[in-house]
TrEMBL record:
EC category name: hydrolase
Similarity field: Belongs to the DNA2/NAM7 helicase family. SDE3 subfamily.
Source taxon at top rank: Eukaryota
Residue numbers spanned by region Disordered: 1-69
InterPro entries: DNA2/NAM7-like_C, DNA2/NAM7_AAA_11, Helicase_ATP-bd, MOV-10-like_beta-barrel, MOV-10/SDE3_DEXXQ/H-box, Mov-10_helical, P-loop_NTPase, SF1_C_Upf1
Protein name per UniProt: RNA helicase
The keyword RNA-binding appears for this protein: yes
UniProt-listed Enzyme Commission number(s): 3.6.4.13
Claim: Cytoplasm is one of the keywords in the record: yes
Domain Helicase ATP-binding span(s) in chain numbering: 495-691
Sequence ranges of Low complexity compositional bias: 43-62
Amino acid sequence: MSGQGGINGHGGPGGSGPSRRKRQSQFVVDQHLTNRRAGARQTTSADGAAAPSGAGDTSSDAEPPTSVLRETSDGWSFCKLCKVAFPSSGAEAHLQSKRHELGLLMFQQGKHDTSTQDLHNIRITCEALKNEMSGFHGVAVNPGEKADVHFTILNASASYSRNLVSWGCPTAGSGIEFVQQAGLQLKPGQSVRLQMKICMAAIGESRFYVFFTFTNGLNEPKFTVQKCPVSVSCVDDIVQRLGADRAPKNRRFIQIPSHLPVAKQTVPGTRPPKGHSDKLEKDLQLKPYNLPGKMRSFINRSFKDTGSRLDENSRTEMCAIRQMCEEGVRYSTYATRFSALLYCEEAQMDVDIKQYNLEGVTMNQRRNSGLLVLEVPGLAENRPSVLRGDHLYVRIMAADGTLGDHEYQGFVHEVEQTRLILGFHQKLLDQFVPNMKFRVEFVNNRYPLKMQHRALELVEEQPDMEHLLFPSYDTIGSWGNLITDPSSPLTFYTRNPAPNDEQAKAIRHIVAGTSRPAPYIVFGPPGTGKTFTIVEAMKQVVKCLPEARILACAPSNSAADNMAEKLREHLSKDTLYRLNAASRAVSTIPDKIREFSNIDRETGQFEYPRRSELEKKKVIVCTLITAGRLVSARFLPGHFTHVFVDEASQATEPESVVAIAGLLDVSKDMDKGGQLVMAGDPKQLGPILRSPLARQWELDISLMERLMRNFPPFKRRQAPQGGEYYDSRVLTKLVKNYRSHPDILSPSNKLFYEGELLAYADPLLSERMCGWDTLPRTDMPVIFHAVIGEDMQEHNSPSFYNPQEISVLMTYIDRLVNKRSPKGTLIKEEHIGIITPYRKQVQKIRTELRKRKFEALKVGSVEEFQGQERLIIFVSAVRSQPSFLQTDMKFGLGFLTNDKRFNVAMTRAKALLVVIGNPNVLACNRSWKHFIDYCHTEGALRGQELLHSDDDSSLDELVKLWSQLAISQDDPTAEEVSVHNDQQEWRRDQ
């Protein structure tokens, strides 16, 4: 918030002259790189022991190395050779399987194209229609178009004949025909030309090896097998056009810090006009909580004792912090541990923000304002997130690229779609001329971090918080009920529809306060109405408990606005108040909540009333971070009797604590309140973090998820008691899904929700796409469209895109938009959403949509779709090259590393779900494998043929062919890791 000193706490001009900006004493290192280097020092076996010196030996008589297996945190293993996932209990069976035998053979031979070698005087050449692609002879065809590939076999022996016993490939697919029969004899010096016919119906890539088996012509049982790699691409105009943008192969994006000469002076900028009336007290100080230099040094080492440049005291301190973080969350170290993790996150934020720095850019001067205008690519997508009152730094660049010795602070006065309106000191304006070049440095907004650090300090000052944050059976319900009988019926405000049985039960327990002092949790899987439930609970608290005062919070403005709108349906504007941060654009506030928001009616700007005015409101709605503004005002202990947090599973624990510590009194004499209520779903996406260290030590686990994971009162029982798997005094699981068709809901229901979800969606909506003529099964509105595409990158971007998937996607879009559904309703752009994990894929899809003038169709990441729904959802998985899987797993990219991301993507659709991806790659993840198997079993597959299963007889033939090739000595345990950083969206809500 700009009222709290902007970002990083730097002061404005305020009459002070130029000064030198205080910089951090130590450089920040990308934690992804330090973690990678630390983890690559030695090869380890499956049990974690260091591998012996001969571990890399993969000769044919050696045991298959167990270190090719990577165990995941959910009890599954991933084989790096076979690119498949399976339960860890089946690891030994996999290592002995035909599939793994084939994987090992293919690895040992996969890097060698024997068609270019003269083995036993047999030489094979391929006349391809295109140049070689990644070592494969590439052939491009259009859908339904026929093409031929010819192989010439020369017997270069001067003395011996050779017999071609067989040729072909067991896995080439139905679109490939090997014309000539085997049984040909090649005399010395003779050659033969063989023909392979190609006709592919589906867009995508098909890569396989053509095997040639020979005898020596003397009727001896000695065989010679050679292989020739072939790549067949079925393409159209979209694939060809997008493929032309690709960068060269094997390019790596590694962030290299730029060491620039330090500016001699920093000239402070001009702050934006205050623009709001701020009468709200600031009785509790918000300290800077700067990242200590010593902590930065520890983070740069990943808290590992490397034996260099650390004195004994520092080494001891660093090891103690690491041990504390590894031990998990404890009340005795609660504040210290979470503060350390926040510092880890801040350090990585400092690294990541640098990717948005701009070199050699120009600014324009806004007429008659003294402000400069800067174009920022990606600004509209929060890449980076910049708010009013934030600041950045610029330096003048000379024609030869050298930088001026002054840097100028620029405060953000306005944020437009792709432009920042900036206020600089007059010293820069006096020098400014059109087309002047600048280097722009972005800096992070530290205000949310400071609020979280202060909240952790306040927890230490309130010993009774232990009962709230570390509840036990001994304390649950120990305060007694606020109403006599929690099972007594309530008269609900919302009657069409009225709360269902589970929702009503949760509401009654919340009103009665049966969990106090422990929190109450509403576990709401997708589409089950968790926000509806807690909003009705708040209305009942207001009605049944006249002295109650409620603080209703959420991590984002959109979720807070949603609560406020629903509350207003039955609460008066005198009772309800929506408190917004000053950094929010007034124009983004929905019309329905403006009348009870903190907007000055005369100026149209934000206002902050005195504490005494806010105390009159029965319900205040704000974001979790803005709740810290109320902490600063020091409301009387016990003023807020209830704190409700919606989407609680999306907030870090320190973020949730901002709305609790200093606001909710949980002392034993609180007979009228002290109730925390959290609603969310820990099976969906949690907080978005950047630091691998913070994730490693579970800063991405919300308070809600920690309680449900670790504390018996909140855990699911192994057997029901009284017909319930959860203790209803503290938690209710909602099970009726009002969003999706049963076939769309089924995979996530089985994978994540014990099969307990019930499909209650209105059939008029959920069955709207049943009968669509494109469905493989007309009564099942789910499609998995198999596409073996190609991962590509542009020259200037590390992010991936997949032209083949985009082509298939656009074919579906053209069949749907502005067409009638089978039930006769018009399908509009806003009915459709497209989810894809990579920023470049989003951009490419949007470009194709704009060509069709489809501007209202939303395309975005899973994070952008959480909490949303559409009639029709498309998912483009992008990843198609197994070689990139290890990179994705290390850096948390794409769909394959995060089951929560998969769950959200699969549960946004009401009436039609279409998933486009490479089944061979996606099946590496157990959730994806379940979904693909589900579609296969139910007859919901389209596109290219799937990979052969483990019991397929073709595996025996492939193993035989590969085993007769010469064996190489490559080490399948070795990893090649490229540093990749797909640009995450930055959070912007305060």
